[in-house]
User: What shape does this take?
Amino acid sequence: MVNWANFISQVFNGLALGALLALISSGLTIIYGTLGVLNLAHGAMFMLGGYAGYVAFGYTGSFVLAVIAGSLFVALVGIGMERLIIRHFYDRPHEDQLLVTFGLGIVFVEFVRLAFGSQSQIVPPPPLLAGITSLGFMFYPTYRLAVVGIIAVALGALFIVLYRTRIGMIVRAGIEDSTMVDALGINVYRVFMIVFGIGAMAAGFAGIVNAPVVSLTPGIGDDILVQTFVVVVIGGVGSFPGAILGGLIAGEIISITSMFNPGYAYVMLFAAMTLVLVLRPYGLLGTRGRE
Amino acid sequence: MRTQRRYLVELLTALGLIAAPFILPHLGFAPNTVNRILVWGLFGIGFDILFGYTGLLSFGQSAFYGTGGFVAAYLLTRAGFPNVFLALIIGMIAAAVVGYLVGLIALRRTGIYFAMITVAIAEVFYFVEFNPLADFTGGENGLPGVPTPSFNLGFTTLHFTTGWSLYQFLAVCYFVGIVIALRVVRSPVGMIMSAIRENPLRAQAVGHNVHGYKLTAFVIAAAYAGFAGGLLGVLQAFMPPDAFLFETSGQLVMQTAIGGIGTLFGPLLGAAVWLFLQDFLQSALGLGAAWKLVLGTVFVLLVTFLRRGIIGGLKDLYVLATGGRRSAEKDDAASLSDFDGAPGSVAPMAPHKREGDRAGGPILQARGLTKRYGGLLANSDIDFTVNHGELRGVIGPNGAGKSTFFKMLTCEVAPTAGTILFEGRDITGKSVTDACQLGLTKSYQVNQLFTQLTVRENLTVAVLADLRGKFKLDLFRDPDSIPGLREQVEHTMQLVRLAGRPDTKVSNLAYGEKRRLEIGLALATSPSLLLLDEPLAGMSPQERVETVKLLKSVAQGRTMIVIDHDMDALFELVGRVTVLQEGRVLVEGTPDEIKANPAVQEAYLGGVLE
Assistant: This one.
């Protein structure tokens, strides 16, 4: 029989994972939508965020400062990456872009492995959010509940930036047609740089917020990257709402399947992706032609 | 010249493989390293056909590598199967079947979607190997005890064990693998694969079943991966579960890019560089775990600056040093002499007789054709009939819906309402490929060419669709053995006056030449109804005159519909004109009637108030 307390706690786990995936996928999808570059180093951005936060935490002992430092650091890495390398790839085929970002991802991961070793590192949750909370019928780790809230706030902030600000309007216009934006006299390359920074920051922020839930290893971003791909395929490329919906669906599928047998989590996720591809090839909230 | 050099590559490969055991040890390669390079190289041949030739970048090849490897290893270790070679073949077939099924899903999308889906699928295989199928695959322990091959020849038994002994077996496998791959890429299917890489849309429009050929490439890649996976187990006497890791796919992609994509030998060279550097950096330089950081950095620099890999770089150097100047000179001279020839002096080839062809009456009838894009009504209730042998012009102001109309006629876009009859047959809702196979095609307003292929290759791709149908798996056929192919290509080339530059890459052609090739591609499929979307666009006055002559000669024995904004040229060329305005037929008539029509004048000049 299904244990209901267990089931609900898995639903919460799924929500936390889903929110996390939604945030990371949003970063991936706005970069792709605007720049036309699929960043295979996005998983490495997630990992870098965790490690940057870990270092900042080591120096300051403050979790809040760690989150700020971690996400800012990754934003800078993203901007640097765009300026130095990605910029030269806008006019080259998608395949070249995939190759170079894949290579960059390996460079980041191996650099961290060299600096911190392969053993896992631990970032404790802030004292305020440590321990467990009683939900009446069950106990649940407080920080995991907080993660859902923190990520929801971050997604809200991203939403406001994208839908309520000037730069967000330009970014959304760029997703539709970046050539036109350029023709309107907006320096589209500067927008690209900012978008790359924001997209990377979303992954980095998720990386440090997630750090207390798991333990940090250099390879932590690899699995996340694959899950992010599934999220984007399910939700639809270039769609911010699609990334959120896809993220929540993927998170719940992984968590609930894991309750029965973790070995099938990916199989179910993949089955869901296949179903979407068959029924709605452009993703649940995607539109035709964004490819 | 071609026949003399035909087997040169094969011969050099054989010599290289024979010489390797005598040379490589002096360069610091251990026999086991060389064997691993061969397995990676063989794995990569299939991947190169998929990525380098067909243009599909998969990050999920580990799925097939692992599948083939584990099927073979399971048969040999758990199922008591005695014959190593047969087990490898069965593993290969299993991988190919899995590849077919995966391809059905992954190929629903292209570009980055395809890459993402392959990654996700490969990840599933990894988890399936570890959990649900752990009883068969040994889970994280893998399958130890994979035997090495031996062949009983009656009088003696050949046994390949380890090191250079096993090398002989692997070298033969690699050689057979490369010979087959060379045949495949030189076959008609191979040419079509390159065309798909360059321009899938046009490959479809000239009448090839692009999805079918992509799936073929995918299955071939899976089969190579499966066989190589089996060899990995034989080589290590153990089938490791990490064959299924994403890193395996990644390493394959990187090695291929390092060596050079689209070369077949790139993966082998890339693997040699990779494994050599790995040993060298780890042991000789004592870098330990940092080797991968160095390799990753080298890879990023290589992709950024030497995009065609080592082999591509060497080729460029070679061309720069020797051939470049000479062939360019030859080409110029040829095109000059070609220019002297009177245009239109070559009689065009008559369209092939197809089933259902009739001499008289309407060839094309469109009834109530309507196309809606959201709120925009691009075409509304168009009735349009063209008779056999007619030369029809379609004009209209910008935004009148001419191109949309053409796209519906060639089945590129499906109409919102209405029917299209071609030769009395309802083709509404058919694919552009089927329409072309029936004898209805168009030349594009914006050039849609296979830019990295030569003029001859471009036309060959189009003619192949005409002669072979939309899908045929003649993987080992020599294109020269297809009757009529050469003649039809040569003929079309003369017709569009590009015979002087058959081996020039399209990207190096002048604009006017590209425009002529654009028409040539449509002509090469020998259509009975040819649609031309602004064939004169962007041409100089001189080029226009010549192109009009060309079109006149092409029109003999063929029905044509031409869109153009050059009224003088169009009125000279066509017998009847249809005027579209705001998505509707405004009027239809002879050029003189159209010129005199006040409604047409108003449409073009804007409301002229009396």
In short: The CA atoms of residues 79 and 294 of chain B lie 43 Å apart. Residues 328-344 of chain B have pLDDT under 50 and may be disordered. Chain B has three domains: 2-274, 286-333, 391-414+427-605. DSSP finds 24 helices and 14 strands in chain B.
